[in-house]
Amino acid sequence: MNRSVGIIGLGYYVPDRIITNKELESFVDTSDSWIIERTGIKERRISAETEATSDLAEKAASAALKDAGISPEQIDLIIVATATPDMAFPSVACIVQDKIKAYNAAAFDLSAGCSGFVYAMITAEQMIKSGLYRYILVIGAESLSKILDWKDRNTCVLFGDGAGAAVLAVTKEEYGILGSHMGSDGSGAELLKLPAGGSRMPANEKTVSEGMHFLSMNGNEVFKFAIKVMGEAAVKALEGSGLTADDIDLLIPHQANIRIIQSAAKRLKLPMNRVFVNVDKYGNTSAASIPIALCEAKDAGLLKEGHIIALVGFGAGLTWAASVIRWCKEDRTFA
Ligand code: ACO
């Protein structure tokens, strides 16, 4: 069946608490100028002690449902992309299902690091295209602050918390998702991981005393990988859409580092005024970064009817994913 599937509603939530680079300077050996020059990040949001990923996800989901103009009962499936679930199980998606009273929805989490939101969106698209489901809520939500070693300047300056959500449904013909690409390279699994707390290294006194329950990353290798795959993934998704980089009105890349974003723009020969950037305000919010950026781009009036929007992410796994969307402004359901 040849249905077009698109985003009919968007919402996001970021915690109130802001940690600026200046504040970081007060407890870790870093500087505002180093962080800005090497990453483009000025500040990040940090969830409260009592706030877990599902709490952020719930708020983003409720906003997206309101924007879509549909009720929670109409949702058939909830997919939450996250690397920082409330706990190993049950899934964040099930907790959100209960919180928002989406009584008719199936629910599961998806683990693909920072590529997770695009992975989840592509999964949802196929389930709607096949006719299995009508409305799917896709959420990217993270509480990375809870798995960071706040004494490790190599990682703690880079990440932040937040959530973004999108409702997907059948949309106007030739609008919505035009083409996508997903990839992975598990040989890079060691480069970015949470070593302890799983079945490989169950949590115990030793893992805690050695800080093995904190995010561990080989920043330089991840950087090289990101530079390589960001542009390539977008090109593959464009090829699948029958478009070229010239057609992109707005690139919404994963917000990890301004230098990685600039290199993707360069690879696609796109001027930076056609690239959305908010890494300065939020740092890297992993699976939440693309949907938060999408929401902010929409609020800024940058998503116009017929615009070609390219989403591209990379992350732990290693993984990468891109989607090209023809934006439909009043994208309500055509099912
Ligand atoms: N403040 C001050 N100095 C620092 C800091 C800091 N916060 N962090 C590192 N440095 C120092 C290093 O110790 C090093 O000092 P040395 O030369 O004396 O050894 C120096 O700065 C340079 O370090 P590099 O690691 O070479 O710095 P680089 O320019 O490569 O930037 C960074 C590091 C920002 C981590 C970069 O490699 C990067 O962005 N990598 C990608 C990370 C990423 O995107 N991760 C997320 C993936 S997505 C996901 O799934 C979560």
The fraction of residues in strands falls at: 15-25%
Number of strands: 13
Tell the overall outline. Answer: globular
**Ligands and ions found:** acetyl coenzyme *A
Cα radius of gyration in angstroms: 19 Å
Residue ranges: pLDDT <50 for 5 or more in a row? none
In DSSP terms (H or I, runs of 4 or more residues), the helix count works out at 11
Largest sheet: 5 strands, mixed
Helix content: 25-40%
Report the order of strands and helices: EEHHEHEHEHEHEEEHEHEHHHEE
Strand order of the largest sheet: 1-7-6-4-5
Mean pLDDT equals 96
The N- to C-terminal Cα distance equals 12 Å
Q: What structural class is derived from the secondary structure elements? A: alpha/beta
Describe this structure in words.
This protein is α/β, with parallel strands linked by helices and about 325 residues long. The chain has helices at about 20-25, 30-40, 55-70, 90-100, 115-130, 155, 205-210, 220-240, 260-265, 280, 290-300; strands at about 5-15, 20, 45, 75-80, 105-110, 135-145, 160-170, 175-185, 190-195, 215, 250-255, 310-315, 320-325. The protein has eleven helices and 13 strands. The longest helix has 23 residues, at about 220-240. It starts with a strand and ends in a 9-residue tail after the last strand. Bound molecules: acetyl coenzyme *A. Acetyl coenzyme *A binds near residues 38, 217, 220 and 316. Acetyl coenzyme *A binds near residues 113, 154, 217 and 315.
